[in-house]
Amino acid sequence: MTVAVQTGQWQLDAGASTVALKQKTMWSLVTVKGDFTAVTGGGEVAADGSVTGALTLAVASLDTKNAKRDAHLRGPDFFDADNHPEITFVVRSAEVGADATVQVSGQLTVRGISRPQSFTARLTRADADAVTLEAEFTVDRSEFGLGWNQLGMLRGLTAVTAALRFTRTSA
After folding, report:
1. How far is 150 from 133, CA to CA, in rounded Å?
2. Is 123 contained in some domain?
3. Looking at the domain assignment, is residue 3 inside a domain?
4. pLDDT per residue as tens digits for the range 39-59
5. Structural domain boundaries, residue 139
6. pLDDT per position as a tens digit, 75-128
7. Distance between CA 110 and CA 52 in Å, rounded?
8. Structural domain includes residue 80
9. How far is CA 151 from each of CA 18, 25, 82, 95, 148, rounded to the nearest angstrom?
10. What is the dihedral of CA 58, 122, 106, 19, to 10 degrees?
11. At 140, phi and psi to the nearest 5?
C-alpha cells in the first residue's frame, strides 16, 4: 500500500476506536483483559509530513467486566484515578513507511510519571478523510509506579492493543 496521508487536523473517532490491555496474573495462569471506554485524541499532519498529536484515556473508564477488580485498579494500588484521572500519550513523531507501517515515538504518562514510548503501528486504512492505525506493544508497569504485586501474582509486561480511527477535520 502506498500511503500519502493528507495534511491538516485529525480527530479521533472514539466510536470506531478501541484501546485495551492484557496482564498475566495469578502466577501467569489467568490473563486479565480490560478496555478503556472513554478515549479522546487528535493530531496534525504538517505540510512537511511531520505528525504530532495526543491520545487521552480516562482511567475511570477501564472495564475488565469485574466491578471489584475495576475499583481496585482505579484505586491507589494501581492507577490512582482520584489523583491521576487520565493516561496520556503524546506523539512526538510518526514516520510512515512504504509497507504501511508507522514508527511512532512519544511520551506515555501514567500516574503522573512520563516515560518515552515507541512502537510500530500498522496503517490499515488511509484515504482523504479517514486513517485507521492498529498497534500492539508492551509497557513495564513498574516504570509508572504500578508496582503492586501481592504474593507475586502479577508477572511480565502489560500488553496494550489499540485500533484508532481518525477523521480529517480541516486542511
Report:
1. 36
2. yes
3. no
4. 999 999 888 888 999 999 999
5. 8-170
6. 888 889 999 999 999 999 998 887 889 999 999 999 999 999 999 999 998 888
7. 19
8. yes
9. 32, 11, 26, 42, 10
10. 10
11. -85, 100
CB 94 within 8 A of CB 68: no
DSSP states along the chain: ----PPSEEEEE-GGG-EEEEEEEETTTTEEEEEEES-EEEEEEE-TTS-EEEEEEEEGGGEE-S-HHHHHHHHSTTTT-TTT--EEEEEEEEEEE-TTSEEEEEEEEEETTEEEEEEEEEEEEEE-SSEEEEEEEEEE-GGGGT----GGG---SPEEEEEEEEEEEEE-
C-alpha cell at 117: 514510548
Residues 6+ apart with CB under 8 A from 55: 12, 19, 39, 40, 41, 88, 89, 91, 164
Which position has the grid cell 502466577? Answer: 27
Number of domains in the chain: 1
**Cell 495534511, residue?**
7
- Rounded Cα–Cα distance for residues 103 and 122 (Å): 9
CB 103 within 8 A of CB 92: no
Residue 129 φ then ψ, to 5°: -115, -10
Q: What distance in Å separates the CA atoms of residue 146 and residue 139, rounded to the nearest whole number?
A: 11
* Cell (9 digits) for 83: 489523583
The answer to whether 43 and 54 are in contact (CB under 8 A) is yes
